[in-house]
Amino acid sequence: MHLKVAGSRANRESRSFSADEDLDVELRRVVEEAYDSPARKLSGFDIGRAYWGARTAFPYGGDIVDVFQYANGRTSIAVIDISGHGIRSARHAGLVRHALRAYASQGYDAVGSIRALNRLCIEASIFEDDSEFFATAFFGIVGADRRSMAYASAGHEAACLVGGGGHRFLNATGPILGLLDDDLAFRGETVALEPGDIVAAVTDGFTEARNEDLEFLGALPLATVIEHNRVRSAQEQAQAIVTRAFEYAGARLADDVAAVVLTVKAQERTQ
């Protein structure tokens, strides 16, 4: 009788362990899809995104990029860098990504979305008793006619617009998220777009990659990589960006690197 009970317990533990393994596999699949799935093909744009995790056990963290197209024809591009690493930061990154989508879907402009997100970060930090819920974010919304992009940048320095006349960095327009409860601290900017223009942005794992002399890579190489690879696809450009950081750091990245590239295509002709 005792052996039978022990055997039943062993079976239950085995099934529980198996269920945990299945759950772990499913969670990893969900996270990997958010970070590593191919960029969606969207009308009017060539889109690429790439991710290089600094850790091997769980290579995903608080760095995430996103491109989303709305029913009204607008398209958003987001780069999010959450404080910390691991599954906690990945969970918060997913929250922030979908919050930005939701705000823009409800008609908020770029700066309005960032202001609402700042409020969410502050309230989530209080509600969850998490004093380390901070983030930097770049959020741009391209108009349906693809002639301009309104953007707001919360403490995010590494985004640029590359066009026929060279490059222009889209600098921060406000503080990091979750730090200051003041809507007026965040402002927006608008840039004109032309066919062939490229918007590229990375998380700070790129700019803060260090070589053997401990020198930072910085932001300028982001524009350089794009300019040197303009004839290539957006996906190839995104991959070239994260590879540049990896090679500069001698294959020893200290932080994750996420990159997104959005190329504006020419307007399609109507019959």
Description:
The protein is of the alpha+beta class. It has a single domain, classed as PPM-type phosphatase domain (Phosphatase 2c, domain 1), CATH 3.60.40. The N terminus is likely disordered. The strands form two sheets. A five-stranded antiparallel sheet has the order 1-10-9-6-7. The protein has a five-stranded antiparallel sheet with strand order 2-3-4-5-8, covered by helices on one side. The chain is built from six helices and ten strands.
Helix-strand topology string: HEEEHHEEEEEEHHHE
Number of helical segments?
Answer: 6
Largest sheet: 5 strands, antiparallel
Low-confidence stretches: 1-17
CATH homologous superfamily placement: PPM-type phosphatase domain
**DSSP, total strands:** 10
The CATH class is identified as Alpha Beta
Principal-axes geometry comes out as globular
Number of domains: 1
CATH topology: Phosphatase 2c, domain 1
Radius of gyration (CA) equals 21 Å
Please tell me the overall pLDDT: 84
Structural class category: alpha+beta
Q: Under the CATH scheme, which architecture would be assigned?
A: 4-Layer Sandwich
Strand order of the largest sheet: 1-10-9-6-7
Please report the distance between the alpha carbons of the first and last residues.
82 Å
Strand content: 15-25%
Helicity, in percent?
25-40%
